[in-house]
Amino acid sequence: MFDLILHAIPVFIICLALEAISFRFLPDDDEKGYELRDAATSVSMGLGEVFINIGWKLAVLAIYAAAYTVAPFQLPADNPFVWVALFFADDFVYYWYHRLHHTVRVLWGSHVVHHSSQFYNLSTAVRQTWTPMTALPFWLPLAFLGFSPWMILFQQSISLVYQFFLHTERIDKLPRPIEFVLNTPSHHRVHHGSNSEYLDKNYGGILIVWDRLFRSFEPEGARVRYGLTKNINTHNPFVVAFGEYHAIWRDVRTAGNWRARFGYVFRGPGWSPSPSPASSSASSV
Question: Which residues form the Fatty acid hydroxylase domain (predicted)?
């Protein structure tokens, strides 16, 4: 099967190098640019993801194929309208995959990797998770709807290639009609912001219309502070990849009851049990 991401890697490397060089010859005090250790960590995460996906994509393909074989009908790959339908279906699924990976902590444990850099450049785009398994349930229904497994994976790759080019400060806002419909570097900078007004905004993949429709859109205004609300401050790829899972396990292990354990896993990042009335009054004394 043709793997668009693997074939795009040389383009990614060239664009990353050109962007890094541009900061040397055209510096901008309002842009953070590159930091060598941070970029190296991002590239390490990207290479690790490519290696993991060698095996994982075969498993995904097999699972999609099993669902596709029992689909009530199978959509023809030579029909352009099927590809149009897949484009919108994939982008809609991506929106909800992305949104839930910000609002369910066990899913955030996988996605936090991508937000762990305090820089925003094309190297940030390749800072990807080493636990891609959390994505499987979101796209599986497309196979049950009759989309061929190779079509689903190919459309996912198109979306990821598009999103690579969103991770830059070198492009300002684009013309209004484009900004209204498509996800752009400006919209995605907001998504990577730790500013309070930018948290959990702009989840779109290629289109930004889902954010406008489901009220998660925020335009870029104040200068973006990149990273997490509590930054991890490490360049160790293994800590970046698995640190949040370790934190979840620590919270679950020390929780006082099953309600709290459930909350630490399935509620949002930063959730903690509400204190009881007795403890609240005691702590306020």
Answer: 83-215
What tokens appear for 200 in the block?
A: 């959990």
Q: Which two tokens stand for residue 231?
A: 């930054």
Strands annotated E in the chain: none
Task: Find the mean pLDDT for residues 113-132.
Answer: 98
Largest distance between two CA atoms of the chain = 71
The CA distance from 121 to 271, in Å, is: 30
CA pair distance 201, 190, nearest whole angstrom: 7
**pLDDT tens, position by position, 248-285:** 999 999 999 999 999 999 999 999 997 644 333 232 22
Mean pLDDT of all residues belonging to the chain: 94
Other CB atoms within 10 A of residue 104 CB:
17
CA 19 → CA 14, 24, 75, 170, distances in Å? 9, 9, 41, 8
Tally the residues of the chain.
285
196-231 tens-digit pLDDT: 999 999 999 999 999 999 999 999 999 999 999 999
- On whether the pTM is more than 0.70, the answer is yes
Q: Where are the alpha helices (DSSP H) in the chain?
A: 4-25, 36-69, 80-103, 105-115, 122-125, 136-144, 149-164, 176-181, 185-191, 209-213, 237-254, 258-266, 277-283
